[in-house]
């Protein structure tokens, strides 16, 4: 039942009036505008949304692809969006073209670093600018020297230049031949490490923080206080030097810098809120390790109407599901395709403080570690390790379906570097010094005993001689 006839007639008149208005408006529009509208409709290419970056910023082959800052700077105190991790593409989905694979330097692909978290687009501000100036025209280079990442005192250009100088010049005066086997102690240490990477093919550069502190204390302080912003800058510097020196080398992925031996080494009991988001080094014993956990890094969506596909990077643990298809403009038609999404390896590890570090009469403390990619399955339960990583604090939801969180946060450490420590070395006994404890006469006696036919019985009887019999157990 559609209602009384008068109401039906009234609705039909309204619809007819709307159709006539649209037809008149279409007739008044110029032919060029009609042709543009028809062409855009036929190709199905829509104009980018106002929130999307321009095409020049999205192009990976742009000359200014080193940083995703605007090509023209204005001398003002307005914060600028500055992707500190480009071209390593640790950034948000807006830092690269959707649907395109990550391309590296000269054929070497790029891998994200989940150990640094999701490095979002860092805002850079000019601390020395009081406002817009009409007389001074700031160039890109001069303004780049003044910009620092918002919330820090890290200048990306200066930080990268200092680290490159460190890699090219640092010679350890306290180096020992037994520690650096195969290295020339009179040549820059880390340039030889880059040569090893070229020969072996393992794209990881371990940097001793003690060396960095002796070379540049300010750079070391920035690394400890702001590791999430500084380490991607170190990666850029190391890759520039490596590929300039070895242009024909193709690695599994671009080089990743892994600092270790931070001076800020703390016991688990002394970790405080002031250490959150800072680089720390702790020691302990592994008591538990989980199975491999696949963590999604890039989600693949497909439109159920027109089969249009797009990729969305995970930003701070959240998937920004496209609400509108860019091809057919249909809302809520994108479906997640799991088997075409990109995942990374993840593992949770429980680290317990060592017995010698534990106060008498107290229960040992434990801390949760999260290892990613190549650090998965590097340690096993029972290993004593020195762990260098970033101390994190994450909120806990009261109810998974409600956005309210608890006031007490849960802490963990994102592992950047492992270093195993033998139990003997914890007490100051080295393997080489232990071998030198046997004299030559002692070695001759052991060799003579090894030639005796009843050496097996002699050894079993010498084991626990105060216990009578039990020869089978002793053997």
UniProtKB/TrEMBL annotation:
Cellular component, GO annotation: MCM complex; nucleus
Disordered: annotated segments: 27-70, 89-134
Cross-referenced InterPro entries: MCM, MCM_4, MCM_N, MCM_OB, NA-bd_OB-fold, P-loop_NTPase
EC supergroup of this enzyme: hydrolase
Cellular compartment(s): Nucleus
MCM OB domain residues: 267-395
The entry's keywords: ATP-binding, DNA replication, DNA-binding, Helicase, Hydrolase, Nucleotide-binding, Nucleus
EC number(s) given by UniProt: 3.6.4.12
Domain MCM N-terminal: residue ranges: 160-261
Primary site of residence: nucleus
Reactions accelerated catalytically: ATP + H2O = ADP + phosphate + H(+)
Ranges of biased composition (kind: Low complexity): 54-63
Gene Ontology terms: biological process: DNA strand elongation involved in DNA replication; double-strand break repair via break-induced replication; mitotic DNA replication initiation
Quaternary data: Component of the MCM2-7 complex.
Family stated for the protein in its record: Belongs to the MCM family.
Biological function: Acts as a component of the MCM2-7 complex (MCM complex) which is the replicative helicase essential for 'once per cell cycle' DNA replication initiation and elongation in eukaryotic cells. Core component of CDC45-MCM-GINS (CMG) helicase, the molecular machine that unwinds template DNA during replication, and around which the replisome is built. Acts as component of the MCM2-7 complex (MCM complex) which is the replicative helicase essential for 'once per cell cycle' DNA replication initiation and elongation in eukaryotic cells. The active ATPase sites in the MCM2-7 ring are formed through the interaction surfaces of two neighboring subunits such that a critical structure of a conserved arginine finger motif is provided in trans relative to the ATP-binding site of the Walker A box of the adjacent subunit. The six ATPase active sites, however, are likely to contribute differentially to the complex helicase activity.
PANTHER family, per database record: DNA REPLICATION LICENSING FACTOR MCM FAMILY MEMBER (PTHR11630), DNA REPLICATION LICENSING FACTOR MCM4 (PTHR11630:SF66)
Protein name listed in UniProt: DNA replication licensing factor MCM4
Organism encoding this protein: Balaeniceps rex
Gene: Mcm4
